[in-house]
Amino acid sequence: MKTLEEAFHHTLKDVYYAEKALTKALPNVAKAAGSSALKKTVEHHLDETKQQIKLLEKVFASIDQKPEGEKCDAIEGLIKETDGIIKEASGVALDAALIASSQAIEHYEIARYGTLREWAKVLGHDEAHDLLTQILDMEKGANAKLTSLAVETVNKKK
Q1: Which candidate, 62, 73, 61, 66, places its Cα nearest to that of 21?
Q2: Are 86 and 29 in contact (CB under 8 A)?
Q3: Which of 29, 26, 35, 45 has the alpha carbon at shortest distance from 156?
Q4: What is the mean pLDDT of each run of 10 residues along the chain (158 residues)?
Q5: Gap between the Cα atoms of 34 and 86, Å rounded
Q6: pLDDT for the residue 46
Q7: How far apart are CA 47 and CA 55, in angstroms?
Q8: Long-range contacts of 98-102 (CB under 8 A, 24+ apart)
Q9: The pLDDT value given to residue 92
Q10: What pLDDT sits at residue 158?
C-alpha cells in the first residue's frame, strides 16, 4: 500500500472478512450465553452483522470494486480468545467474560469503521461514507447494549 486509496481498499477487505467470520462465530457465543438477555443481544447483533455485510457490498459497488475479503488476523485472534472463554469460563464469569470479549470485537470494528468512513470522505466516496456511517452507528449501538447489559444485570461478584 502506498496511497490512501489502497489503504482504504485493503481495510475494506479486512472488515468484510471480519464480518463474514463473525457470522460463523456469533452463533457459538449465543449458544454459550447463560443469560437469556445476552443470548438475545448476540442473536440481534448477528442479524445486524448480516445487514452490515450487505451494506459493505454496497460500499464495494459504490467504488467499482468486487466484494472480497482479506484475512484479518485481528478478528481471528479475537474470535480465538472468545472460543477460549467459552471453553474455560462458567457461571456469572462466563457471561461477563463473553460481554468483555464481544466489546473488544466491537471496539475493533468501531475503530476500523471510523477510519474507513473518514477515508471515504477524504477520497470523495460520498456514498461509501454514508454507508460506512450506518455501519459505524450499528457497531456503536451494539457496544452500548453490551455495556448496559453488563452494568445492569451481568457484572456480579458471585
Answers
A1: 73
A2: yes
A3: 35
A4: 96 98 97 94 96 98 97 97 96 93 97 98 98 98 96 82
A5: 11
A6: 97
A7: 13
A8: 98/29, 98/32, 98/33, 98/38, 99/38, 99/146, 99/149, 99/150, 99/154, 100/150, 102/29, 102/42, 102/45, 102/146
A9: 83
A10: 63
Helix axes 91-123, 73-88, angle to 10 degrees: 170
Contact 13, 69 (CB under 8 A): yes
**Grid coordinates of 54:** 450487505
Give residue for cell 460463523: 24
Which amino acid appears at position 87 of this protein? K
Domain at 4-153: CATH architecture: Up-down Bundle (1.20)
Domain segments of the chain as ranges: 4-153
Amino acid letter, 54: K
